[in-house]
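2024-03-11 09:14:02 INFO worker-7 job=invfold-0412 stage=load source=structure_tokens
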């Protein structure tokens, strides 16, 4: 029988099938952070239950951590309490804890791959929707709620209905200035934010096979934004080279055994998907969003579409434009912006900082722009310094902040003021996502860099 990659990984982790109900799925890796875990640990305490497999759980502080002066006490009482709870709960249950100041600290979906916690064929969950990032390694990874966090802590299993399977193939090659972020935003703009609801997506085709691992992580990260349960890409030599020798990956003969299994992780030639979609990579341009959900995106040189040409309610569409203070038919090129945010679990890796620096090198930050450059981890921060990127950034008028989720969801002090426009490399542009009344334009690191230099929406291809 021919199986998809998703089937192979999912079926090998089913502990029990419940008739007319969900599957009981064994979880290989559980990532926790300070926001969705305190109540889960409190539930364990009330029931007198311990974490079943502490060595399969990894804790890091990221969501509401400050990105300046991390050596000082956290001022916000709620954030301070959550961070303290994560540290104490990790210590009590013998869980690896990478808190503020720890050399391995960083955004949960950045540090997991960095240290080889993320591996092909694994099942990975976290109390965060963008857990789908880890699917770039051929893993089944998805976000879970707080009650499910407690379930996994206590049983190392979770009850889940098996999603349907979708394959998205992007053939051809990408043009100059087009990044993995643009590929993801393009797909979402075509499918809408609900177009993959109920599905687990496998990405295939030359565009993805040619991508770096960091690029694949960006694409899988954004799977959730089109409604998918998660996304994954079959592992290949790039995958194996990326994870080999990392702290938590197998070594010696264990590596050889793992490779025997990992090499089988691909969809069989005649595997059946519930839905197949195909795009031409040469048709993708640098993207930018203009509305209040990730599906409201266009090629950067295009005009904002008319409401009548869009699926969904005209009233909702116009309400979104009204919030952004944009008009149908507007050109995005030349619109003034106020903030630029480079970072998040979507685009906070070293490759993203290299791309950003490539644009700004030898130029100066626009005086009307406030730029927050936030590495996804201390490892990324160190690479920025070691590779000489920091000097280039400083010479161009930029400063580097400390690792964390930062302005992606504005749970710390990194909030975009009401009415201000932010070109952001993060994953969501909902109303108020980056601060009450803030207006977010999702884009790639290249588009963000071009805006930071010019002070307005600019096609990065003109600066390359």
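2024-03-11 09:14:09 INFO worker-7 stage=emit residues=464
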């Amino acid at each position: 029988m021919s199986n998809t990659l998703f089937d192979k990984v999912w079926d090998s982790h089913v502990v029990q099938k419940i008739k007319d109900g969900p599957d009981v799925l064994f979880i290989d890796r559980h990532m926790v952070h300070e926001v969705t875990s305190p109540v889960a640990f409190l539930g364990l305490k009330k029931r007198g239950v311990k974490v079943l497999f502490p060595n399969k759980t990894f804790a890091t502080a990221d969501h509401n951590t400050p990105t300046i002066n991390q050596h000082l006490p956290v001022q916000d009482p709620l954030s301070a309490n959550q961070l303290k709870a994560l540290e104490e709960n990790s210590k009590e249950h013998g869980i690896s804890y990478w808190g503020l100041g720890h050399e391995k600290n960083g955004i949960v979906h950045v540090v997991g791959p960095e240290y080889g916690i993320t591996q092909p064929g694994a099942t990975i969950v976290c109390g965060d929707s963008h857990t789908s990032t880890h699917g770039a390694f051929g893993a089944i990874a998805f976000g879970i709620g707080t009650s499910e966090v407690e379930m996994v802590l206590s049983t190392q299993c979770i009850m889940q209905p098996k999603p349907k399977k979708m394959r998205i193939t992007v053939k051809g090659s990408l043009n100059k200035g087009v990044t993995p972020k643009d590929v993801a935003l393009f797909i979402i703009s075509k499918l809408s934010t609900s177009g993959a609801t109920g599905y687990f997506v496998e990405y295939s085709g030359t565009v993805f096979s040619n991508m770096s691992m960091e690029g694949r992580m960006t694409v899988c990260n954004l799977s959730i934004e089109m409604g998918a349960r998660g996304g994954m890409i079959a592992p290949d030599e790039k995958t194996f080279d990326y994870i080999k020798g990392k702290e938590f990956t197998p070594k010696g003969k264990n590596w050889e055994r793992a490779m025997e299994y990992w090499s089988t992780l691909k969809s069989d030639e005649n595997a059946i998907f519930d839905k197949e979609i195909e795009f031409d990579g040469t048709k993708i341009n640098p993207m930018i969003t203009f509305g209040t959900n990730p599906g409201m995106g266009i090629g950067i040189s295009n005009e904002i579409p008319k409401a009548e040409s869009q699926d969904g309610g005209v009233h909702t569409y116009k309400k979104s434009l009204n919030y952004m203070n944009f008009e149908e038919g507007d050109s995005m090129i030349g619109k003034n912006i106020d903030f630029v945010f480079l970072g998040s679990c979507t685009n906070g890796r070293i490759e993203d900082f290299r791309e950003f620096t490539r644009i700004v090198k030898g130029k100066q930050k626009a005086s009307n722009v406030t730029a927050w450059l936030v590495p996804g981890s201390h490892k990324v921060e160190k690479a920025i310094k070691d590779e000489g990127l920091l000097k280039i950034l400083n010479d161009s008028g930029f400063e580097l902040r400390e690792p964390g989720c930062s302005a992606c969801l504005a749970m710390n002090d990194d909030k975009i003021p009401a009415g201000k426009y932010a070109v952001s490399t993060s994953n969501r542009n909902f109303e108020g996502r980056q601060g009450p009344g803030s207006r977010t334009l999702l884009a790639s690191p290249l588009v963000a860099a071009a805006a930071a230099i010019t002070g307005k929406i600019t096609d990065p291809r003109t600066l390359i």
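2024-03-11 09:14:09 INFO worker-7 stage=report msg="The mean pLDDT is 97."
2024-03-11 09:14:10 INFO worker-7 job finished
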